[in-house]
Write a structure and sequence with these properties.
Order of helices and strands: HHHHHHHHHHHHHHHHHEEHHHH
Low-confidence stretches: 559-567
Distance between the termini: 48 Å
CATH architecture: Up-down Bundle
Mean pLDDT: 89
Number of helices: 21
Oligomer: single chain
Radius of gyration: 23 Å
Helix content: over 70%
């Protein structure tokens, strides 16, 4: 079967979803230019700045399209086949993920750009707000662990790959990339360069370091037991520094340069899938009972394994955190919130296609999502005459760059939430909150687990199931809070209630499957702490309590006649 045909069908589904269901959802929320957005109302030139939709959708897309929609589809596609993965990515994004991102954005702008957690406090209660913050903070810890180890895996040397051992060179390119971002920040904000001038110089340099990195590869000594552990620790140090320094020094210029790489990979993916002439070789469906290796059931784990490609709770934090403070007018929310999610789902489809073009016995499938993605992009980039080595380096640098985006935001958000929970203030409070946010991931990266073959299992593989489940559960709880708001306001609350119900079933079901072996172990051997089982159990209980808190609010009669709520909707 032709990859072109599947790509065209997928694009058609996403476009139809945007123009038809997206329009319906926008009408449900009653978007109008008459309502003044917080960006225009406050417009302080700092946090609240109205932006054109063309600019804002690019910034929002760059913030949400990290490595989740790449790694998740690759994992799910290789485990269960490409067809169920593709269906969930395309259909799930239209009816659930897009609705989640859009509704979180609209809920925020209708409440003075408050966060989703604050909307939960307003409509469900103070206790729910406190529990929701704890849930988010714990979820962010696992985001940091998973993405730190994925980055480390992209940097380590793999001698078995011979001439295709590009990891140490990617590490060099990555460090040079961060150095460029730091220098660009000073050029823009200390030496008053124009953005046009800085872009003209630094964007070409980003692509130059792709080639330069392979000439001077970096390999860390196994100080903490292995080179990978050393990279894990060094990346956590980067997270600490990036979280406490001013935004202009590194995060803003790095985000700008990272967006350039993101758009480049997006274009490569589009052109490669449409014009590469590739045939699909991977099986459409792999049943767990007939697979060569043991696999957990496709329902509900397919949905939580794909994670961000179809729906992501992390997006709600971005939508209600920074994007809502820049929305120029309410109708723009459809393009930015709903459209941004559909764009990310296409990124997920491109990532899935890097599995689809491989035969099931291809050795690339055993190398991990970073190598699969990078080598898939390399095949696409052959259309432009780029050498395989340079193309793989570009793909792996892009992979690492997307992770930096996530790590930066996750660590900073973790710090904000910890300060909110503890009342820590000032610079010392920021340093202390960052330390505690990274302390638990720092402990977890020292864990070493071996499989039945005696080989060490990468940490990201161990924690991905609980990461995927908690990220999706965060989306479910966000939708739950928005459903209560819509119900109280007399609107068609089923548009978020049905996605809430589906996400609760799949995520809580996934957590039960994760918790089950841990509980059985307790019954046999007595109480024992397990970082995955224990945390999954804690998050499961938190979610149930939040659900219990919300149910009475949903049962209450609509109060849309109250003027205060009319003004909010």
């Amino acid at each position: 079967m032709s990859l072109l045909l599947i790509t065209l069908i997928s694009i058609s589904i996403l476009l139809a979803g945007y123009f038809f269901y997206g329009k319906f959802i926008a009408n449900v929320f009653g978007l109008t230019k008459e309502n003044i957005t917080p960006a225009c109302k406050i417009n302080d030139g700092s946090d609240f700045v109205p932006a054109s939709p063309a600019i804002l959708i690019g910034q929002h897309f760059a913030a949400i399209a990290a490595v989740g929609p790449i790694a998740g589809p690759i994992l799910a596609g290789s485990l269960y086949g490409w067809l169920p993965s593709l269906l969930w990515i395309a259909i799930g994004a239209v009816f659930i993920g897009g609705v989640h991102d859009f509704s979180a954005l609209v809920a925020s702008i209708r409440h003075d750009a408050k966060s989703v957690a604050e909307v939960v406090k307003l409509y469900i209660g103070q206790k729910a707000y406190f529990l929701f913050l704890i849930f988010i903070w714990i979820s962010l810890l696992y985001v940091i662990v998973v993405f730190t180890d994925l980055t480390a895996g992209a940097f380590v040397s793999r001698p078995e790959l011979g001439e295709e051992n590009f990891g140490p060179g990617v590490a060099t390119s990555s460090f040079l990339y961060l150095g460029l971002a730091l220098l660009m920040g000073f050029c823009l904000y200390r030496w008053n360069w124009s953005l046009k001038k800085a872009s003209f110089i630094f964007i070409p340099l980003v692509f130059l370091i792709i080639f330069l990195g392979q000439q001077i590869p970096i390999e860390l000594p196994p100080i903490l037991g292995s080179s990978r552990k050393s990279w894990d620790f060094l990346i956590l140090i980067y997270c600490f520094i990036a979280s406490v320094i001013p935004l202009w020094t590194l995060l803003q210029p790095r985000g700008y340069l990272g967006a350039t790489i993101l758009y480049a990979t997006f274009i490569v993916g589009v052109l490669g899938t449409l014009f590469g002439g590739f045939e699909i070789q991977y099986p459409a469906l792999i049943h767990p009972e007939t697979a060569d290796t043991p696999r957990l059931p496709i329902f509900p784990l397919l949905f939580t394994t794909i994670a961000c490609g179809a729906c992501s709770g992390f997006h709600g934090l971005v939508s209600s955190g920074t994007t809502s403070k820049q929305l120029r007018q309410e109708p723009d929310a459809k393009a930015v919130g709903y459209g941004g999610m559909l764009l990310e789902s296409f990124v997920a489809i491109v990532a899935l296609s890097t599995v689809m073009i491989l035969p099931i016995n291809d050795q690339t499938l055993s190398l991990g999502p970073d190598e699969i993605y990078a080598r898939g992009l390399a095949h696409f980039m052959a259309l432009f005459g780029m050498s395989f080595g340079a193309a793989v380096t570009f793909g792996k640098l892009a992979f690492a760059t997307f992770i930096y985006d996530t790590l930066d935001v996750a660590t900073r958000l973790g710090r904000y939430i910890f300060q909110e929970l503890t009342g820590l203030k000032g610079k010392f409070g920021a340093f202390l909150a960052t330390f505690f946010t990274l302390f638990f991931p720092g402990i977890l990266i020292m864990i070493e687990v071996k499989g039945i073959n005696g080989k060490i299992i990468p940490l990201w593989k161990i924690f991905w199931p609980v990461f995927g489940a908690t990220n999706q559960l965060l989306a479910a709880l966000t939708l739950l809070g928005i459903t209560v708001w819509l119900k109280k306001s007399g609107k068609k609350w089923w548009v978020t209630a049905l996605p809430t119900l589906f996400m609760l079933v799949t995520t809580l079901g996934s957590l039960i499957l994760i918790i089950k072996p841990w509980l059985l172990g307790i019954l046999k051997r007595g109480p024992v702490f397990h970082p995955v089982g224990t945390t999954a159990f804690l998050l499961f209980i938190l979610a149930l309590i939040l659900l219990i808190q919300a149910l009475p609010k949903l049962i209450q009669k609509s109060v849309s006649t109250q003027s205060s709520l009319e003004n909010k909707i």
